[in-house]
Amino acid sequence: MAWITGAQNTWCPGCGNFAIQHALKAVLEDLVAGGMRPEEFVLVSGIGCHAKIADYMAMNSFYSIHGRGAAVAGGIALANPDLRVISCAGDGDAYAEGLDHLIFAAKRNTEMTAVVHDNRVYGLTTGQYTPTSYEGFRGRSTPEGVRERPINPLELMLASGATFVARAYTRKIDHLKTVLKAAILHRGFSFIDVLQICATYNNLTDYYAPRVYEVEGHDAGDFDAAMRLAREWDYSADAPIALGVIYDSDAPSDPWPRMNGGGAEERAEEIRRILLEKT
Amino acid sequence: MRWTMQDFSVLIGGKAGEGINIAGSVIARLLSACGLCVYMYYDYPSLIKGGNNFAVIRAADDQTFCTRETVDVLLALNQETIRLHAGMVREDTAVIYDSGVVKAGGTGLTLDAFVKEEEAPAITRSAGIIGGFCRTAGIPWATVEAVFARAIPRELDANLRVARRGYDASPPGSWIRVNGREALPVLTGNEGIAFGLVEAGLEGYISYPMTPSSSILHTLASYAGRFGISVVHPENETGAMLMALGAAYAGRRVAVGTSGGGFCLMTEGFSLAGMAELPVAVVLAQRPGPSTGVPTYSAQGDLLFALFAGQGEFPRIVAAPGSVEEAWYWAGALMDLSWRFQTPAILLTDKNLGEGLFSFAGAPPRPPLAPVLREGDGKYGRYQDGPGGISPLAFPGESGITVKVNSYAHDADGITTEEATTIAAMAEKRREKERAAAKALAAYPCVEVAGDRTAATALLCWGSVAGVCAEVAGRLGLRVVRPVVLSPFPEEQLASALLGVGRLIAVEENIDGQLSRLVGCHGIRVDERIGKYDGRPFFLEDLERRVGEVI
Ligand code: SF4
């Protein structure tokens, strides 16, 4: 199966979205080689540069609207538990417009994987700050520099009940693949904040390169340890930036009943009984 | 009897939290068990405790849909009820009250003593007054026992003992003529919607609570296991709508329900449904005013909102039922139509219909209308050409194909495009679906006519004012013309319903005359407008007077 459509790719040269797309393609190929069906995957995207991945990947997709990807993914998961839903979102998408849906997907432990393309800038609307832009970031809507503290998405997701929390980086593509695969195979809600290079508006390669490191010997089952690691770098001040699976635990998934549907006859019979009860 | 036809009204009032709604529904079911058709209007402020609630139950040989200005029996659990409704009491009105807390003329019942002596819970006070009512109205004790057994699942014995005390302590009367007809089930409009959706194959209901739509959520949640459906209360209305669209994409028949404020949040997803060509049935239960408005009262102020909600141009099917039978029918029909034409649909209701209680005579069968599914194999494009602009449906998971839906302008495969001819072609495809939907709707009762079908003066109305208009028209010899479907606009059916009408009087529960404006856009002139916008329904006599002033 070819995983890439014929749609013309319009990402800027050097954009981190390419790395995420390639990692996703490699992981899916790998999973299909291991016996899964390509048709059981569904890609949901929001709006922004990241979202074009829905056009570029030759797979089931729902190219939704700004911030709502997690809600759409939740609906798909509820409707058909045989599907594996991967919800790609931008940082503006996930942490600004759609924060409520993301938090509740984590809270419910919905069966889905949230991949946030966190380039810490609005690319498609030409360079404004986002919820994860560092303090002092100069964007087109904040020429004097942002005077808000960034959100730390890892801390936020841990606090919201996510059962799998990870961070990856687009310039470490093999590591990204490993983490992505683990996230997709995790049962329940899995979350990856992918530090992504925006080649045009926020190229932080020089900032990330000396700071990122892959975690070793961290106990991902220990919530407190995970919280400590998540707080090591606050997305603003200078600190080492941990990459890898920060938290991984088992918990019951989505509490809402699945849609299984009864037969028309049984329903009609049930309705007749209820009408009798209501006389 | 004052009328040869039975037409009997009873009001029960008390403090918020005293279970007036349940007491009223038990009275409605008692009257229904005597073979009468019932209607109950329930009035409550947006308070959990404090304030006064009341229910008016009107029972007649034929179905009624409104209340009258006076009542035959007044049941008062508090003094406020006597004070508030003094104007509804005639000389021959029987007043039954709790003599422990109320001073009035009529039959006083020592409800607290009944409850204490029967060692029953305090909530059974209302059973005591219902017992008194039954004796006064002439309802046989056996009927009380039978109805209580069905209507009161908890503390049945205690309720019956207290009711018996009230029954024995009241003077016998004979307001009711048990007419021997089989009792009909008694349903709220919202229950009708819930069961109509289920009958039409509902698989999921996703809703954030908002009065007056919440009881659909509650009803479906309580029967979810029996129907094998999923009922979900998510984080907010935006999430509800988007979740519903995700489920529809995955092949599930889903509906969402809300009121105006919630629908504001849903318009984003509503528009997405239009572009992505996803089916979803939306129940929009109106209440008065912009913003929060008056949460527990009724209005017809969201017609133009429903018709124009969402950015861009796309087809939507909008229907406003006027009775519980129509609510049942159109909830199902909109589900069918939404799936057939892969576009969102709105069932426009209001508090008076949704929370009103009615005898249910059965919904008519719907014309069969199946979705257009992908057949055979080969290449699949989610938006490829099909008859009437309808692209055959397939769902994710199917082997060998990809199903791509898109909120952007897209090509036949669902891939984003900004190419001029494709953008235009897709706009035309959506328009074509609208025409096809209008054509299919020719087989549905999109316009209802009541009253004298030959009268040259007609009342034009929509939604829940249907019943009061029909009753007034019957008394004044007028015709009633009522579009049930409001989009696509049923031009032909409306024209034929209006044949021979020289004078048209619009009756709407809004201030702007929204239906009048809508028909005006289609070249139909309304001569007079009667509006009501205080949140309360028309009384029968009230509307009769106002119509009398303009004919
Ligand atoms: S603007 Fe930034 S994020 Fe968008 S495509 Fe260009 S490099 Fe990538």
From TrEMBL, chain A:
InterPro entries: 2-oxoacid:Fd_oxidoreductase, OFOB, PFO_beta_C, THDP-binding, TPP_enzyme_TPP-bd. Residues 198-252 form the Pyruvate ferredoxin oxidoreductase beta subunit C-terminal domain. Residues 47-194 form the Thiamine pyrophosphate enzyme TPP-binding domain. Signal peptide: none annotated. CDD domains: TPP_OGFOR. Keywords: Iron, Iron-sulfur, Magnesium, Metal-binding, Oxidoreductase, Thiamine pyrophosphate. It comes from the Archaea. Transmembrane segments: none annotated. This is 2-oxoacid:ferredoxin oxidoreductase subunit beta. Pfam families: PFO_beta_C, TPP_enzyme_C. It comes from Methanofollis tationis. GO terms for molecular function: iron-sulfur cluster binding; metal ion binding; oxidoreductase activity, acting on the aldehyde or oxo group of donors, iron-sulfur protein as acceptor; thiamine pyrophosphate binding.
